[in-house]
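Justification of resources, computational component.

The compute hours requested in this renewal are based largely on the per-chain cost of generating structure records like the one below. Each record pairs the submitted sequence with a full structure-token output. That output is archived, and it is also reused by downstream analysis tasks.
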Amino acid sequence: MTTLTRRGRGKNSDKKPDGEEDAAADRDLNDEDANDSKDIRLTLMEEVLLLGLKDKEGYTSFWNDCISSGLRGGILIELALRGRIQLEPLTMRKKRLLDRKVFLKSDAPTGDVLLDETLRHIKATESAETVQTWIELLTGETWNPFKLQYQLRNVRERIAKNLVEKGILTTEKQNFLLFDMTTHPVSNATEKQRLVKKLQESMLERWVNDPCRMDRRTLALLVLAHASDVLENVFASLADDKYDVAMNRSKDLLDLDPEVEAPKAKGAEMIWAVLAAFNKS
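The structure output for this chain reads:
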């Protein structure tokens, strides 16, 4: 698990059809991003990878062994925010986030290949799995050969390809003595700067000191950036005093008990469940 580093609705009769609920969930995402760029919409996975990429080199740190599982956690949160999956309802027997299974709420396509592939996997399982198990399965960290079919392959490259298509990254070939590697330098620095500024301001000027009052996607991105060991990249450009404030507030937020916080905010259970899974790993 990564650590924060420091410098040196209603009744059934009112229920909407699944298609309308999915569309409403997607509209909610747009509403939450009202202050963001109207031209480019990024998934949580794309945002995490963008934060982790070195701008000129176009690859993530060779020492980062957390980003793969972090991206899979991002897929689960993105699907939950879009109304496609949810946690098993709270019961007396299953109270802990990590004991509750992931249930399929809707298999309506999202338009994103990775999200839709994950939806098919969740739909195909004979028995429901927990958040932590799904992160392991999607990453390929399982000893059960019958479960290897659920692994998502080439995730980073596929996400990078999406970012290339959106005009944020470009594609190059670099030689590293013994091998050639495809890299994806940042070509749209403005979009990355916007993302970094958004997170910096959430910890500084817009700090609310209460996760229930935070925009869900911002909260999710902070959790995923921490889990993927790229949160340091967000605050690295800040002056020392602001850096310390941002890191201290981030630590306070991420040190909260997911079991206590999850019931407080509607629609944020999956975010806290993913954090709980990474805290345990």
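Residues 8-16, 33-37 have pLDDT under 50 and may be disordered. The two ends are 6 Å apart (CA to CA).
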